Amino acid sequence: MSSPHTFTVGDRVTIDPTVARASTRGVTYRVTRLLPVNVIVEPVDGGRPVKVNPTYLRPAPTADSTTTTDSSSTGGGTHSGEWTMNHEAPLHPGTLVTVAGPGWKQPPGELYVVLRDTGTGRVSLVPLGGNNGRYWRGVSRHLLTIVDPTRVRLDSEQTT
Predict the structure, then answer these.
(1) Which of 126, 66, 53 is nearest to 93 (CA)?
(2) Contact call for residues 23 and 43 (beta carbons, < 8 A)
(3) Distance between CA atoms of 44 and 51, rounded to whole angstroms?
(4) What whole-number percentage of the chain has pLDDT above 90?
(5) Handedness of CA 98, 99, 100, 106 (dihedral sign)
(6) What's the pTM?
(7) Could you give the CA distance from residue 1 to residue 70 in angstroms, rounded to a whole number?
(8) DSSP bridge pairs for 127
(9) Most buried residue among 13, 96, 132, 154 by CB atoms closer than 10 A?
(10) With 0-12 CB in 10 A as exposed, 13-18 as middle and 19+ as buried, what is 29?
(11) SS3 of residue 119 by DSSP
(12) How far is CA 88 from each of CA 33, 72, 116, 118, 148, rounded to the nearest angstrom?
């Protein structure tokens, strides 16, 4: 029982940056086939096709959504497109967070501590209180919610 596709063959799309791999992030694709569950897309500039769930696809930005600079400001004779990216400040080690979203298998609402932020949109986490040296690597920043440590309360009858 699959949901109807919101894209048709020939549509220009991108893969949601929160779930895209580094090799597919920011690439514009054209829908080539609709399968019962997934969609096959091919890069507009050529390359290997990708099979992806349509819930991870977003409409591609039009040429008007990029800012272009003219030849007088660049010193050259051609126009060059500039993409603007949202840059998040890195999380400091020890930041208290909760994690929830697609792909996260642990119960929502549990507290985790950031071990490191790689600066690529991925972090390493450990459960608050530890987990016998185990931790999660490569957790997407988009799945995290920062928790104010002053709002955390320990119950008096809680055993450690």
Answers:
(1) 126
(2) no
(3) 15
(4) 32
(5) negative
(6) 0.50
(7) 50
(8) 112
(9) 13
(10) buried
(11) coil
(12) 35, 32, 14, 12, 18
